[in-house]
Amino acid sequence: MLDSCAEQGVTIQIATPHFYANHMQPEDFLRNRQAAYEKVVDYAGEKEISLLCGAEVAFFRSIGYSEILDEMTISDTRLLLLEMPFREWTSRDLKEVELLLRRGIHPIIAHIERFYSFQSDKGIIDDLIDMPVTIQVNAEALLSWRTRGKMLKLFRTQQAQLLGSDCHNLTSRPPNLQQGREVLEKKLGQTQLQEIDTLGMQLLKKYHR
Length: 209
Ligand SMILES: [Fe+2]
Prior knowledge:
The protein has 209 residues and is an alpha/beta fold. It has one domain: Metal-dependent hydrolases (TIM Barrel, Alpha-Beta Barrel), CATH 3.20.20. The chain is 44% helix and 14% strand. It has eight helices and eight strands. The strands form two sheets. It has a six-stranded parallel β-sheet, with helices on both faces. A two-stranded parallel sheet has the order 1-3. The protein is globular, with a radius of gyration of 17 Å. The two termini are 29 Å apart. The site of fe (ii) ion has 4 residues, from loops.
């Protein structure tokens, strides 16, 4: 996967293994993540990829008050990749996101495209987008005709700001950032890509601890 990422021009990669508070102990998660990091960090270096540790934290009740989040943010920053629940969202869910913001954590909402089908009132997604969070789209969503139009519109209207990609394996969910970037470039122009790249670097700096 690192070979593939290097070929796609990736120079900074944020590894975000899933963290599920309901069935994982934070200490176990952090130990496993560290062990995995140590296995690949030198190889990443050979590929001129600087590898950062993060986590894709699945939403859980009272996440707004959780004390474990400082360990789950992207290395040395207050950026948190947050996976919203795969169900109908409530105003209470959005309150939790608000609590995160209030305590200085900046949520990056993972793969926004995956949540539309769960909401009978799509307005609640707009409500989240309107909050001072960063919205991420998965490259996969730009490759499927089902989601492409909607996601291009989100980028065009600056409602979505970041593009990420899967990196689960080399078969069913391979890293495919480059393919997503090609779609963005073709449809919205080179400037769109520059904006994404610049914002990524800015966020790492702005929210550095
Ligand atoms: Fe996810």
